[in-house]
Structure formats: structure tokens, C-alpha cells
Design goal:
By secondary structure, the protein is of the alpha+beta class. It has four helices and four strands, in the order αβββαβαα. Strand 2 and strand 3 form a beta hairpin.
């Protein structure tokens, strides 16, 4: 139920908020999707993406959790998102420092957030269709 209520609450509070879900699927040799292997849920407020949760359903040598992070980051960047808020930095997130991941002071974060929340990014669906 919370998954259905949260987007409504967010949009009612700010019209520039959009729920987002990224999914990574396994395919068979014919190209048919067979099983969900990783997912990431969050929402965008303007050009800021807030990662809420992630699940790695199939754990194996392909590192599907890392793959979904990289795919989401690529799509967010291509669509014009400029800040990915992941919450408190955990040691496992240090691998993303080389892509610009870093800690912000409270003042710098809110200043950046306020500047980006009312800007409109491209639609990720359009980015995917354009190649």
C-alpha cells in the first residue's frame, strides 16, 4: 500500500515530483525477459533523484546490484538530473566516488537542492527511445 500512497503524497506536496523505478531483467536466448534480477526505487524532484531502496534479487558473479546503479546513473545523467541523493554515505558507496559521489555540507546540499528542484529534466522514457 505504501508504494501507492507515497507518490500521491509527494506529487500533492510538490508538482515537480515523480516516482521512478528501474528494473534489470534477465533474458533467455530468444531475447524474452525471464526474471527480474535487480531493481531500484526512488523519486525525482526536478533534477534531483532520491534513491529510496534497491534490491538485488539474483546474486551472482554479474554483480546485478552494481549494474542497476550504473544503468540508473547513466539514464539519470542523460536525462539531465544533476544530483543523486543517496542518504548517508555507506562504505559500499565509495566505488562511486570516481563518478563524482561525495559528501555535502548541509548548507551546500540545501543550496544545490533548492536550485535544482524546480528545473525540469528530460523524460527518461524519451531518452531510452532516442537511443
Amino acid at each position: 500500500r505504501l508504494v501507492h500512497v507515497l507518490p500521491r503524497m509527494l506529487v500533492e506536496r510538490h508538482p515537480n515530483v515523480f516516482p521512478m523505478a528501474f528494473e534489470l531483467w534477465e533474458a533467455d536466448s530468444e531475447g524474452s525477459f525471464t526474471s527480474l534480477v535487480a531493481t531500484k526505487l526512488g523519486f525525482a524532484c526536478g533534477k534531483v533523484f532520491h534513491g529510496i531502496t534497491q534490491a538485488t534479487i539474483k546474486k551472482d558473479s554479474r554483480s546485478t546490484g552494481s549494474l542497476i546503479n550504473r544503468a540508473a546513473g547513466y539514464l539519470l545523467q542523460k536525462s539531465g538530473h544533476e544530483l543523486w541523493y543517496r542518504g548517508m554515505k555507506l562504505p559500499s558507496m565509495s566505488e562511486y566516488d570516481k563518478y563524482g559521489g561525495r559528501n555535502y555540507s548541509r548548507e551546500e546540499f540545501w543550496s544545490t537542492y533548492k536550485a535544482l528542484r524546480d528545473q525540469k529534466p528530460l523524460n527518461i522514457g524519451q531518452v531510452l527511445r532516442s537511443g
